[in-house]
Amino acid sequence: MDGMEQMGARGEELSRAGRLFFDRGWVPATAGNFSARLDARHMVITASGRHKGELGAGDFLVVGLEDETLKDVRPPGGKPSAETALHLRRYRSGPDVGAVLHTHSLAATVLSRLNPGGVVLEGYEVLKALPGVDSHTARLEVPVFGNDQDIPRLAARVEAHLSAHPGLPGYLIEGHGLYTWGRSVAEARRHVEAFEFLLACELEVRRLSR
């Protein structure tokens, strides 16, 4: 498969994820951003401001993985997501990261505001859908990072934490949403579905427990 075919295939996978997530209310308006690794040097990422439930072939850009200034953008003049640095840092962490997905669900947004120190998920069977979890008794502490419009600074803070806590499958940004990843778009999509279900459960438990 050549570069254009790779871009088309990954773009179609990300478009299907976008339609699924929009239908479930996880990417309202133009929120969220998605990317997938194309090869050792490039990724494809959603263009800024595009509706994730209506993504098409012209809504993706190819970005060089090692270039912070994003010079290798095609087509020329295209504008990648404002949060591209958060994706780039994940791919640079290792070749096992094949896709990064970011959603803005109500549950993720509310819980991240209620728990700026982190959200604990424990006792849920669906936890086993996440990598490294083999029992519902596992305790997963999902870190919450304070929001920051300086995305490279935020990305550096996130990666420093993930490097110190290897194996974490995702994180939240306060008042913003969820980032998770996987070896492929399909695996990352499964992680989004698991996280969003778990966060919705946790929010409902807290509401009913008041």
TrEMBL record:
Reaction catalysed by this enzyme: 5-(methylsulfanyl)-D-ribulose 1-phosphate = 5-methylsulfanyl-2,3-dioxopentyl phosphate + H2O
UniProt key word Zinc: yes
Protein's GO biological process: L-methionine salvage from methylthioadenosine
Pathway named in the protein's UniProt entry: Amino-acid biosynthesis; L-methionine biosynthesis via salvage pathway; L-methionine from S-methyl-5-thio-alpha-D-ribose 1-phosphate: step 2/6
Cofactor note: Binds 1 zinc ion per subunit.
Cofactor: Zn(2+)
Ranges where the Class II aldolase/adducin N-terminal domain occurs: 12-203
Domain of life: Bacteria
GO molecular function: methylthioribulose 1-phosphate dehydratase activity; zinc ion binding
Alphabetical UniProt keywords: Amino-acid biosynthesis, Lyase, Metal-binding, Methionine biosynthesis, Zinc
GO terms for cellular component: cytoplasm
SMART domains registered for this protein in UniProt: Aldolase_II
EC number annotated for this UniProt entry: 4.2.1.109
Recorded coiled-coil stretches: none
Cited Pfam families: Aldolase_II
Keyword hit for Nucleotide-binding: no
Residues that, per the record, bind Zn(2+): 102, 104
NCBIfam families: PRK09220.1, salvage_mtnB
Function: Catalyzes the dehydration of methylthioribulose-1-phosphate (MTRu-1-P) into 2,3-diketo-5-methylthiopentyl-1-phosphate (DK-MTP-1-P).
Family: Belongs to the aldolase class II family. MtnB subfamily.
Protein name in UniProt: Methylthioribulose-1-phosphate dehydratase
Originating species: Cystobacter fuscus (strain ATCC 25194 / DSM 2262 / NBRC 100088 / M29)
